[in-house]
Amino acid sequence: MSATRWVLAEYRSVEDLYAAARRLRMAGHAEVDLHSPYPLPRSDEVLGLRRSKVPLLALAGGLAGVATSIAMQVWMNAVDYPINVGNRTLVPYPAMVPITFELGVLFSSFAIFFGALGLFGFPRTHHPVFEVEGFRTASIDALWLSVEVKPAEAERVADDLRRSGAAQVAVAPEAG
Amino acid sequence: MTPPATAAARTDALEPAPLIVGTPTDRVLNDELLDHVWNPKRGWKILFGIALAGTGLLLTGITVTLARGIGVWGNNIPVAWAYDIINFVWWIGIGHAGTLISAILLLFQQKWRTSINRFAEAMTLFAVVQAGLFPLIHLGRPWFAFWLFPYPSTLGAWPNFKSPLVWDVFAVSTYLTVSFLFWYLGLIPDLAALRDASRSKAQRIAYGIFALGWRGSARHYQHYRIGYLILAALSTPLVLSVHSIVSFDFAVSLLPGWHTTIFPPYFVAGAVFSGFAMVLTLMIPARKLLGFERVVTERHLENMAKVMLVTGMMVSYGYLMEHFIAWYSGNAYEAFVFSNRANGPYRAIYFMMLFCNVVVPQAFWWRKARTNVAWLWIASILINVGMWTERFIIIVTSLHRDFLPSSWGMYAPTWVDWSIYAGTISFFGLLFLLFLRFVPAVAVTEVKELRHEMAHAHAGGKEAAR
After folding, report:
1. For B381-392, how does the pLDDT look when each residue is reduced to its tens digit (9 = 90+)?
2. Cβ of A136 and B196 within 8 Å?
3. CA of B452, closest CA in chain A: separation in Å?
4. ipTM of the assembly?
5. A89 dihedral zone (left: phi>0; alpha: psi -120 to 50; beta)
6. Exposed, middle or buried: residue A89 (CB in 10 Å: 0-12, 13-18, 19+)?
7. What ranges make up the beta strands (E) of chain A?
8. Whole-prediction pTM value?
9. B172: closest chain A residue by CA
């Protein structure tokens, strides 16, 4: 038996969805989430989310790429295997720009992509909310709210949501 | 959610033509835009068969090249770079429009990009794959391609990072990787929509795996949106850098006709020009066959025609400046190369280039030409041909008569050159057909979001007017 249960509720309008989310948060539920086919404006305020860490990851990735590139070019062409072309400098800064830029972009993109997947906890192809068949509409045309609660509270929260104007409410069966 | 029946269309007096025709609900959009995945269109199999046969031509060309060596190509000394580099530059240039549409137009908040970006990004990926093939097989011994990358070899040698050819390796491989990540990140919510709309268990499992577990969570969207935006911001300078670096392969050499500072911007403009032409070449039949007329409207086609007009004018300016500087520099070799382009043995190709790239886009000054689908399609093909001839002119005419008349020569492609080139076109078509068969060709999530925004803006405007 898992330690928590997921209660899902579908709403017909963004306003109702936000109102329900706010009420749940006021009631002390921290694990409230919204599900929609496309990003909803101001949903992060409604859920009280802190700023995303993704920009910092992107910056860190970019700086790591730049540092790697400079270290690589200097060490390989000037230290480990100096390539002397007509006695020109071994460390030509302008000629290092293209690769430094490219690696900066590459590392930064990796940081964004895999960083975001990491923050999502992906890949995670199974999740308790998928146990509710109606939840499939969340990626098509419906607005859903989910909240993670203690098993004992599940029915009470579901009743509250039903009274709050949800179009349908479901408690996710425990995944087997 | 049932959307309000407000028009998702005419919201701005300055933008009269609609981006989405009618007032479809999210469900209708979902059904329409994913329909081509569930119900393969008639003709798909025939096109796939043709593309598969053409890909056979590519394999034949490559096999002959590997078995006999690159002597089976028409390349010679002095024309050591020919079809392989022409086609490389042509393909990679085509790819650039995809990134321009998906990244640069996103940053400029051009809403019309929404219904064509996924399509254009796929085109980018597949075009870069074709581009990458050419330098690879031009190596002659492609199984040593890893020598291009810095790896700790027993020889103790490293790549020479002062060489533009090494920059190119980094630029193209970064471009391919970042384009893929950008494409896939944008695709995840659409794959989830496919998973949830799927009709069989096998489909649900397959798309479920590729959707990675996406559940449209607002907590995820928060990271997702900013991540997507930063990737766009990174892709924007990346796309400019890639074709600039490709042009360095030429500009950093000392050859008359190549050694000019105008090359990077002129190459980038040409890349966008040819890329938009390719998007139109593919999009015009696809929107008809797949029934995307609701979201890919006349306005999208007209906007793309405008971009082609602008970039075509930039390319024309490039031609003009090259000739002017060749004369103004007073350099006899430089002047000769340019007069040789117009008067030499390859002059027919040169005038073909001028016709396709300078004359044809001028038609887009007229609205009628920008909105006539048949003409747009013909013009887009002519521009693709024109941009290919441009690369032929840049590469072959500069090489075939350089400094010493004693080392002049002529170049003609062989059947192997032609089969590899035609083969890459088929292989590109093959990948594209697979894309149209299995992946949503229009960014469904973004179109829904656009519809929502437009409906909202409309409702908001009404309230403000009250």
Report:
1. 999 999 999 999
2. yes
3. 9
4. 0.90
5. beta
6. exposed
7. 5-11, 32-35, 143-149, 168-171
8. 0.89
9. A102
